[in-house]
């Protein structure tokens, strides 16, 4: 694997680069064995409506978009057995596509970075797990449950459950230690046939914007993990160059990661 600069243009310490490459190996191996994604290999797709109420985020994503959403289980456990659940969607923003991938975690600071197994999509918190740079500021992104309705993670019954009534979420952002701040909604409403080209290869390391992209000290590992997973599915091994740094829109609060 060729060396890749970290966000901001600096090169990582040799030890960090080696560890990141080692940690990425299982993703390539899993993808080769499954002939599919290393994690979340099976899922269902749905039409959804994304509405963004935060002005800064709406400048990047648009105020309202029709999006295709993929709901999945990380390890494809059978039936309604619990698993780490995932919600992925691609936003057709004016400046280019933006892929957002979220998984079930805790809600409080610290717990937002820890995966949790769940049985229901409807009442689960989903976060980006690792932080994003949003207009130059480090933020976590989340889909918070907007219903108390339980929607089983059984892929065989998911279509019928969503056809009965939409699956709503509140889109929210937060600093690493702050409270969640609502900034929009995502309503998942219509089952779609499998094999949509919009859901074949979600990749937040390729599909992002200079003012909205993954960030933080673990980003190098994530870059290599996604590249290894793509390579395991028969695609060329390529590590995208991180987006250029964007200065914060204001300087009210400093952040350690940019």
Structure, described:
With 258 residues, this protein is of the alpha+beta class. The protein has two domains: 1-35 and 217-246, no CATH class; 39-215, Catalase core domain (Catalase HpII,  Chain A, domain 1), CATH 2.40.180. It has four helices and ten strands. Strands 1-2-3-4-5-7-8-9 form an eight-stranded antiparallel beta barrel. The longest helix has 21 residues, at 14-34. The radius of gyration is 18 Å and the shape is globular.
What is the fold-level CATH name, i.e. the topology of the largest domain? Catalase HpII,  Chain A, domain 1
Number of strands: 10
CATH superfamily of the largest domain, by name, is Catalase core domain
SSE topology string: HEHEEEEEEHEEEH
Poorly predicted tracts of residues: 1-36, 251-258
Into how many domains do the coordinates divide?
2
Helix content: 10-25%
Q: CATH top level of the largest domain? A: Mainly Beta
- From the 3D coordinates, which CATH architecture of the largest domain would you assign? Beta Barrel
Mean of the pLDDT scores?
A: 80
Shape: globular
Largest sheet: 8 strands, antiparallel, barrel
Q: Strand order of the main beta sheet, please?
A: 1-2-3-4-5-7-8-9
Count of helical regions: 4
Beta-strand residue percentage: 25-35%
Radius of gyration in whole Å, from Cα?
18 Å
Q: What structural class do the secondary elements suggest?
A: alpha+beta
Itemize the secondary structure elements and their pairings.
Blueprint (H helix, E strand, L loop, with lengths): L13 H21 L7 E11 L2 H7 L2 E10 L11 E9 L2 E9 L21 E2 L4 E3 L2 E9 L9 H10 L2 E8 L6 E11 L20 E3 L4 H14 L26
Antiparallel strand pairs: 1-2, 1-9, 2-3, 3-4, 4-5, 5-7, 6-7, 6-10, 7-8, 8-9
Helix pairs in contact: 1-4
């Amino acid at each position: 694997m060729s060396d890749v600069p970290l966000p901001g243009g600096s090169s990582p310490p040799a030890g960090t680069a080696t560890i990141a490459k080692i940690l990425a190996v299982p993703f390539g191996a899993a993808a080769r064995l499954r002939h599919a994604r290393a994690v979340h290999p099976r899922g269902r797709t749905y039409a959804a409506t994304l509405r963004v109420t935060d002005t800064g985020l709406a400048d990047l994503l648009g105020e309202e978009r029709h999006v295709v959403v993929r709901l999945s289980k990380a390890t494809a456990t059978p039936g309604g057995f619990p698993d780490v659940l995932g919600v992925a969607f691609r936003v057709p923003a004016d400046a280019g596509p933006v892929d957002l991938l979220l998984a079930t975690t805790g809600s409080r600071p610290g717990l937002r970075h820890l995966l949790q197994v769940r049985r229901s999509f409807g009442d689960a918190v989903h976060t980006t797990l690792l932080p994003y740079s949003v207009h130059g500021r480090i933020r976590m992104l989340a889909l918070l449950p907007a219903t108390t309705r339980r929607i089983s993670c059984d892929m065989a019954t998911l279509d019928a459950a969503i056809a009965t009534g939409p699956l709503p979420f509140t889109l929210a952002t937060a600093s690493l230690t702050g409270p969640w701040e609502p900034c929009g909604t995502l309503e998942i409403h219509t089952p779609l046939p499998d094999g949509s080209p919009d859901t074949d290869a979600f990749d937040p390391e390729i599909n992002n914007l200079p003012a909205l992209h993954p960030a933080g000290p673990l980003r190098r590992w994530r870059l290599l993990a996604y590249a290894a997973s793509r390579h395991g599915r028969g695609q060329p091994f390529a590590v995208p160059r991180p987006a250029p740094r964007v200065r914060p829109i204001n300087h009210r609060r400093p952040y350690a990661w940019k």
